[in-house]
Amino acid sequence: MKPNRLSRRRALASSLSFAGAAVLAGRDQRALGFAAANERPRVGAVGTGSRWCIKATGIDRPYGSAPDFRRYGDYVAICDADANRLAMASDLVKDWTGTKPKASADYRSILDDDRIDIVHISTPEHWHAKVAIEAMLAGKDVYCEKPMTLTIEEGRLMSEVCKTTGRVVQIGTQQRSSRQFIQAIALIRAGRLGEVKKATCSIGGAPTSPALPVVAPPKHFDWNLWQGPVTESEFHYLAGDYGETKSWSRGHYEFRWWYEYSGGKLTDWGAHHVDIATWGLGLTETGPISVHPVKVKHPVEFKDGYPVDHTRYNTATEFLITATFADGKEIEIRHDGDNGILFEGTEGRLFVNRGRITGKPVEDLKTNPLPAGALEEAYKNRPLTDHFRNFFEAARDQTEPISDVFSHHRALSTCHLAGIAARLDRTVHWDPKQEQVVGDPLAQSLIARDRRKGFEIEM
Fold first, then answer.
1. Alpha-carbon distance 443 to 305, whole Å?
2. Which of 287, 323, 432, 441 is a plausible cystine mate for 331, CB 3.0–4.6 Å?
3. Which residues pair with 61 in a beta bridge?
4. Residue-range domains of the chain with CATH
């Protein structure tokens, strides 16, 4: 660690302890948790789309994690392949800090900047692993929006680099810092459900699209750079009264519905709910032994795991997929039902989502509360806080954050395997120790992707 980073972290340790006093003293929102501007970590952002600002129905509005992130650190540099989004984010930073950040289309300018302590990654997931790995190797701590990776192979590599470099990496699965989810974990660990055998994750289905024509990308949008590591494709786009971007496309936001860049709902909401299910079942250090697609519906035909129609969204719209573990526990992933996670044990059931936590074990808390400190113990023996502060405190202390690379890799591997089983429409058998598909070379080939020349991960 560079001396200036060490001294700054020591200063942060003192300033964070006075967070409440700072608020009471009338400091502005930017200084929450930090006593002075030069004691705040400096942040570089790679990707400035939905987590920053979007243009919807003619109104620019702040959205997502970037406005919350600024409570604990100062953005000093930003990067995006879309010049319009880069300009909007630059204006936001100037509003927040009084100073425009260094703005560039090239994320390497952030990695090469010794002033920067933290890299905030909000790109589509096909860029996540490359940026995160190179940021760790450059000595930066990383906050990476979910899902962490596009493939299982990338998750293994991220885990190896994180362990080797010792960098602090938080994944943006913010449910891990939400009280009702932590309470669910604490109840399970206290034995209030008996032995938990199954978790059902209802994550919703993916949308379909009409056939999208090939058009020229907007001049402000570097389509080649946006594609980056994945196989090059023509730009498909159709304007319409649909979604966040008022369009169907291969680009902003809608990339989620193309296997070329994402895993659809299986890695979008699956990254959230399967993560909680894996945590609750105590399976964060292993993986399933088989993943079975009971039911899968795609909007296009597939051959050998790849879509044959490149003009339409192609991720699964309906599904029921079961992942079975060596100890007999099961995670069920489905498109229907009430969005959330249902845990089933030998002595009770518990349902939790972002709006509520219900079930007899919850009702019994009125007469049989959890012991003091049970929630904090579930939260890796730290005081409960918001997801961003948990990361900044972990970066300050050089400790593991609540949503770490290693457990997220295991949970997301289940999501990726569900996607592989869905694409092939057959059961996939998995060796969680070797992290390899058993007896199915085609399925094994889908745990990794070739990286486009010029966009390899620089190790």
1. 8
2. 323
3. 54
4. 3-176 (3.40.50.720), 197-340+405-445 (no CATH)
Question: Tokens at residue 31, please?
Answer: 């200084």
Residue 147 has pLDDT above 80, yes or no: yes
Q: List phi, psi (to 5°) of 166.
A: 75, 15
- Record the tokens describing residue 401, joined without a space: 């954050």
**Centroid of chain to Cα 115:** 26
What's the pLDDT band for 37 if we cut at 50, 70, 90? low
CB contact set of 195 (below 8 Å; sequence gap of 6+): 345, 346, 347
Q: What are the b/e assignments for 446-456, b being 16+ CB within 10 Å?
A: bbebebeeebe
Tell me if the bond preceding 401 is cis, omega within 30° of 0: no
CB 141 within 8 A of CB 395: yes
Cβ atoms of 273 and 202 within 8 Å: the answer is: yes
* 47 C-beta neighbours (distance < 10 Å), count: 26
For 48-88, write each residue's pLDDT tens digit.
Answer: 988 886 543 344 555 578 888 989 999 999 999 999 999 99
Q: Would you tell me how many other CB atoms lie within 10 Å of the CB of residue 370?
A: 17
Q: What is the DSSP track for 172-236? A: S-GGGGSHHHHHHHHHHHTTTTSSEEEEEEE--PPP--PPPPB-PPPTTB-HHHHHTTSPP---B
SS3 201: strand
Element housing 19 (H / E): helix 19-24
Query: Cα dihedral angle (135, 137, 142, 144), rounded to 10 degrees?
Result: 70
SS3 of the chain: helix, strand, coil, percent, to 5 = 35, 20, 45
Residues for the chain: how many in total?
A: 459
Sign, CA dihedral 246-251-252-255, equals positive
Give CA torsion, residues 168, 173, 178, 181, to 10 deg.
-110
Which of 383, 435, 381, 380 has its CA nearest to residue 403?
Answer: 380
* Cα–Cα distance measured from residue 108 to residue 111, given in angstroms and rounded to the nearest whole number: 5
Q: What is the pLDDT of residue 6?
A: 33
Instruction: Let me know: does 438 contact 430? Beta carbons within 8 Å.
Output: yes
* 3-state SS, residue 322: strand
The pLDDT tens digits of the residues spanning 320-351 come to 999 999 999 999 999 999 999 999 999 999 99
Contacts of 259 by beta carbon, 8 Å cutoff, 6+ apart:
306, 307, 314, 315, 419, 423
